[in-house]
Amino acid sequence: LFIDAPLSAGARIALDRGQANYLLNVLRLGTGDAVLIFNGRDGEWKAEIAVEGRKAADLVCVERSREQTAPPDLIYAFAPLKHARLDYMVQKAVEMGAGVLQPVLTRRTQSTRVNLERMRGNAIEAAEQCGILTLPEVRDEENLDKFIKGLEADRLVVFCDEDAPVSNPVEALSSLGNKSLRLAVIVGPEGGFTDQERAIVAAHQTCVRISLGPRILRADTAAVAALAVVQSMLGD
Ligand code: SAM
Q: Which protein residue's CA is at the shortest distance from atom 21 of ligand 1?
């Protein structure tokens, strides 16, 4: 369970209504039952429920059950999609270890007003469900050109392009032979990148253009495929 408060032995945390309802009425837990909690900074803690009523409850931190882990230095940059497809993309990117979620606006981006709060909520939910202790940073949307120009020159941009020659993307990345990379994976909008945008991304000093196979994937599917390729290179 994500808790937006410092965690330490003996700390007492008042749950908000939604969390209290979830633990007491959905999971049917009660006084003394154990819950695993995290805040994105202090690792994972075993906490016990101290019930005050059916609608309110406190947790008391007992002991740390896992140390805080550092996520891979991995920016997932994507043209925002609409509603459920964006929810799905955010969930999957978090599950697959993205440390930063960066919406980028491109010429064919259909959804230019991004609900960052909804993205954060989805990120928390994915982290809670998958035991991920570090929440990704959710950044404000940025134009593609500005995003690429703002990257460190040595950050490896993994540019997913359905027009790239089909070849094994894991081999292409593994041949770079460096597991301590700073990475940025970029996936385009429903309508794909324009040629001018392809040139902007490819102009980044450290960029590998990869194919995810001979078929055009939907953008949310491409997210999962691209991040799986990157994970198999990083090995974590
Ligand atoms: N119209 C579909 C949709 O609504 O999602 C397909 C969109 S596809 C053009 C969106 C992005 O997914 C592309 O810009 C590219 O980044 C990535 N992509 C899709 N298929 C790919 C492939 N075979 N290889 C590499 N990237 C791919």
A: 162
Average pLDDT over residues 125-140: 94
pTM for this model (two decimals):
0.90
As a whole number, mean pLDDT of residues 127-145 equals: 94
| 43 Cα: distance to centroid of ligand 1 (angstroms) | 36
Residue of 193, 218, 227, 229 to mutate, ligand 1, most atoms within 8 A of C-beta: 218
Task: For Cα atoms 213, 228, 205, give the angle at the middle one, nearest 5 degrees.
Answer: 80
Say what angle helices 116-130 and 83-95 make with each other, to 10 degrees. 40
> Does residue 43's CB lie within 6 angstroms of at least one atom of ligand 1?
no
Average pLDDT over residues 59-82: 93
| Residue bearing the CA closest to ligand 1, atom 27 | 162
From ligand 1's centre to the CA of 151, what distance in Å? 22
The yes-or-no verdict on residue 179 having pLDDT over 60 is no
Signed CA dihedral, 172, 175, 176, 181: sign only: positive
Q: How confident is the model at residue 196 (pLDDT cuts 50, 70, 90)?
A: very high
